[in-house]
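With this grant's support, we have paired protein sequences with backbone structure tokens. One protein thus recorded is set out beneath this paragraph:

_____
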Amino acid sequence: MSIAGILWILVWAGMFTDIYYVQSPKAFSNFFMFFQASRALLPILALFICLFLLMAVRTRFVLYKTSLSYFIIYCVIGLSASLFVSPEVVTSLYWGGMFLSALLVVWLAESLNEPLVQIGRLMWINCYACMFVILLTFPQTINVARGQVPYTQFYKLPFGFGEMRVNGVGRFALIVAIFAFIQFIHGRRIYKFFWGFFIFISLLTLAYTRSRTSLLGLAVVSLLFVFLQGLNLRFLIAGPVAAYILWVSGYKWRAQEHFERLLNLTGREYTWERGLEQIQRSPIFGWGFHADRLMLDSEHMHNSYLHSMIQSGILGGLLFAAAILAAWVLIIKNKLIKKARLLKGEEKNLFMCSILLLGFLTSRSFFESTAAFYGVDLLVLLPAVSYIFVWAHYHAVDTV
């Protein structure tokens, strides 16, 4: 395990906890409260370690016009707004620091020897973390599938970690399905049963969450995979399986066979309107990190681009959009989807996973706050786009 991998685990350790546990007067009242408060600070610890290491390591990858560079500038603007205009400075700076910790660990991975190997390790940590969450939630999926409990919008996490909405669980499921499917078809034969098992439980979980953003992601990923793999009769069954899940979970269960229900924004439009009002009040710098929760009565913005603007203003929103767009421009301009077919082994698997993850999270960004703040989406997206850019850099691909 490299230093970047260890720090990435520290960044992941901040999941399912927050600054509330640190600020609570009961932080030392029992082991669980102390455990949660300690975990909440681990990404900040990773941030400071990264700062020292980046000063000591000569950067080997050019941080110029890449998605990571746009994310970093967006983060700096958000941190400035957090310090000077946020209604709750400490909370905003905390969440800005959490966001920055992920950026710096990925930057460090790009700066170490064998950067593709380093970033690949981060991606595998992402995969195993998502697999762990799916295993934790799978008993509830089975209970819903067997009719023992009714369908609900929330999954209860064990060990007192709270609840997760079905959109979040569906996201974990599709991430696992992407890794598992690529490994199943291109990985070593000895592990096919293992990956086949995770394909099954991830798709079953995805279906029973009825998450429209994840089902949309499944459609996008399926289409992208056809372009990546090319027409191949060996994978002909994958299309009907994906279509069946979309039909049953999305149309029959979620929409109750009424197509217009699939297009229902479930109140997101009202949140967007309120968010735009706050953006207009501070269009240049925004209101700092965590601004949606602080200024919209704890509501989630449910749109990455509006979320980035309420945190970092219009300029920050443009930089955030540029971070996503830059990756797609690189892929399309240099025909990287076609080049992916020529790769071999682990490099091919991770490259294909990166493009598929980017496709899923891009589609998700319009209806969820994907990567605009510290969260699972950010931790999955950053190594994926980093792998694409670093691969392009070392293969003399034009990134401008």
Residues 263 and 329 are 29 Å apart (CA to CA). Residues 64-394 form one domain.
